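Predict the 3D structure for this chain.
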Amino acid sequence: MDLRALLGLKALDDVRSALFVGPHPDDNEVGAGGTMAKLVAKGCRVVSVTVTDGRHGALGEVDPAHLAHRRQEELEAACTVLGIQEHIAFGFEDLGSYTEVDVVEKLVPVLLDIRPEVVVTVDPWTPYEAHPDHIKTGRAVAECAIRLASLKVSQALPAYVPPMFAFYASAYPNAAVDVTDHWHSKIRAIEAHESQFATPEWPALKAYFDFQAREAAKRFLDDAGGSRLAEAFKVLSPRQLHFFPDAIRS
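Done. Predicted structure below.
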């Protein structure tokens, strides 16, 4: 049974508007930079949201306020590479005491304003995901589906609930986007985050990202030759985010 077809879920690269919600300034680029670049190239409205300021995303003697400023500049450079013109910063402190509900309350008005066809974020249910910013962000995005589908949020008609959610960095992907033609833009956007990736680890990380993309293409694009590159996602409808134990297998 093709449950996604029954639920009316589109291909992720066939939408006209998309909201990408990342916990930190580099997460959207790492998880979905190729998809973002592809959607922009197709004329889709792409809006990027960053939940935290990234001020604690480094080792050693670094002034947090200075790092937060630098990471904002790096994010702006990455958005330019991808062609993204709309970015929203919620400004919560990296590893701060903000709650999932705080993120929901910031995000709901954005969703009602933009009304995207898909909301993309990090998968908070990936096994061994230990970063609280990732967990809070991903779960907050999912909770928005429940809130918007209830009387909890006052809405004028026509009421809006995002029809599709896509989670990157998922252990249970069920779809992928062919980003072969936009892979270079993704890598350039990641490299714009110099405070995070201008390190001795970068060549190994870059090779790992390439490996992931080729494996996703083999699995979802039937690319046995390994010539294509893809980004994998767990794509779910709002219905699958509530009382749906088979979501992990769908």
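The chain has eight helices and seven strands.
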